[in-house]
Amino acid sequence: MVTRSPFVNRIIFYSLLTMTVVTTVFPFLVMLSSSFKTSEDQLTIPPQLIPQHITWEHFRDVLDPDVFPFLLYFKNSLTVSLITAGLSILIGTLGAYSFARLQYKGRSVIQKMVLIIYMFSGVLLVVPLFQMVAKVDLYDTKISLIVTYLVLTLPVSLYMLGNYFRTIPEALEEAALLDGLNRFQVIYKVVLPLSTPAIVTVFIYVFMIAWNEYMFASVFITSEENMTLPLGLSKLFFTKHYIWGRMMAASLLTALPIVALFMLLEKYIAGGLTVGGVKE
What we know:
Elements: H1 6-36, H2 57-62, H3 70-101, H4 107-119, H5 122-135, H6 142-165, H7 170-178, H8 183-194, H9 196-212, H10 215-220, H11 229-237, H12 244-269
């Protein structure tokens, strides 16, 4: 067996890391560059990554309601994403805690069924969900998207939170129960503060799914007043106002909330908070 020196291993590692970073970041650099290029610079051959003439025209156009009602779509996306993420945390916390700590008949079966549901592709759920939404008269409403995104994300939320809750020493909860707290108080005062990394991770995950989802939104939403940003970008692509600069500017503004959310909450994601919580 041939063994490589540590120096060669480092070269291979950093080469692969560089390739990964370049392939990941390069599309965003192109989007950023195109959003500041003039319409003439978009067509230069060979293409240039650095704009020759910087313009803010595309951003002004995107924020012009007569060209692209960005603020309306932004408000709809933000409303749907925040409510979905909040409900997913609320329902997921209670459900995951019951899976991790409580003993009751059928718990294992229910837990397995939740994971089996996640195995089905979202495409398979379009027709049944559409029929349900139409029957309860929720078609073309933001509520239909919230319910749909909960169905899509709740299995992962339950799985991630449940696994994290199992890492919390049960002695902490038992001590709280002996002090007179009930189960809900234990969850609120003990489990949730120790589960901040998992809760933040699940919140970001659900928020991203709801923010970027297009397929279900395109089926359930028809009126412009309820459209989310992915639908709005698709609509802009097929209008007379479509040019590359505007599309890239709108895409950049759409991506910024996700980037900002991750940067604000990044410190809560890394590491657990229960180390040293109980002395052996």
